[in-house]
Amino acid sequence: MKLSSYYKLIGFHVLLGVGVFLYRPMALAFFLLTSLYFTYKIVFADKTLKTFYVLLACAYVVGSEVFLRMNGGTVFYEASKYLVIAFAALGLFSNGFSNKALIYVIYILLLIPGIYVAVSSLGFESDIRRAVAFNLSGPVCLGIAAIFCYKRTVPFKQLKAILIALLLPLVSMAVYLFLYTPDLQEVIRGTESNYAASGGFGPNQVATVLGIGIFVAATKFFMSKELMHHRLIDLFLLGLFGFRALVTFSRGGVITAMIMILFFLGLYYIKVNLKTKFKIKFSVVAFLMMVGLVWIVSSIQTSGFLDMRYANQDAAGREKADVTTGRIDLLAYELGSFMENPFLGIGVGKIKELRKDETGVEAASHNEMSRIIAEHGLFGVFAFLILLITPLVFRFNNRSNLFFYSFYIFWLLTINHSAMRIAAPAFIYALCLLHVTYEGRMIDGRPKTVDGRPKTEDPRAKNEEPRL
Prior knowledge:
1% strand, 68% helix, mainly alpha, two-stranded parallel ribbon, 18 helices
């Protein structure tokens, strides 16, 4: 993507954020227009570009989801997940899929018995529909996206464009958040997650997607070959996302983003030549300076409550007994439900209802792992093991994806603090399964052929995989 086009797209999304703030119905119009646009691009794309447009469309929908949700900009609450499913299904219909992706078909089939249990225990059809929509839309979205992506080849240049598609709608959301709460000191009075600082929406979801923005901006900054003044745009965006993510007071998305960046930097540093290693060291210094600046500004803007939040203290400076803010209790309850119903589980959507009946507390699960086990029993255990192990086996045989560990870590950490309330963990998990090719030169500077193999006369190198 040309720099001029990138800056124009950023400018457009800045204006979009302002426009939606001034006139909320614009969000729904934008959702409908982008849905039609990407459907058209996928349907009429050349077969060689079909995969790219499917992933580009899915990435843009995932990046837009929370911003549109907070402004009533989707036809219904789970619409973005269904749109990702629809786009992936269009790609599967046109380009097929790998036979080895059938493991994810089995994963989806393992979820069906939980529906039967729910049907037999829930008396009203509306409750069943709601339970399936809210609790299976995420897992099914993951399954369909994984089937589409498994062993599908994508050039690295296209993968970077897909990540930019994730980032751009987050620019709109960040602008919207600044307009929604221009004076944070007026709304922050303690150390709890803050809805006002999150655009009036769920802080956990807002921080999670802003964490994606932090990661994408950071990777662009570290990998960019442009002059420093161009790279400063990415560093500025990183600071913008970081500030708004911190002041939500939801820690999961921020911590996950930083761990993703560490995994990316570790793998990237290993693969590059000495000249690029020196450049990375300089970039890390600039990155750490920005992180420090963002933290200082955030601390001042929140009157020091941010420091207390990350030190696990309440507004009075007393250490909280539970650093997980109640998540451990939810986890223990769900594991207990599994022990009581180990074979078929308690049924899709039943854990929230059961918890309310027994404890009087209505709280949604934060942990997809314990929820799927509680609601699906042993079928859920096998389903989760498929998700956990399959990417690692794939990675053992295919080390081409520079972002593999970052994507995998995002999925694993996010489903343990935010379950699958949004489409992001499902789609980003699927990106783990791509085969990535590199043109021109390898990351470490050696010449390469179009298929990613080193140009060398050594016959032993003919069957080598790309080093990344």
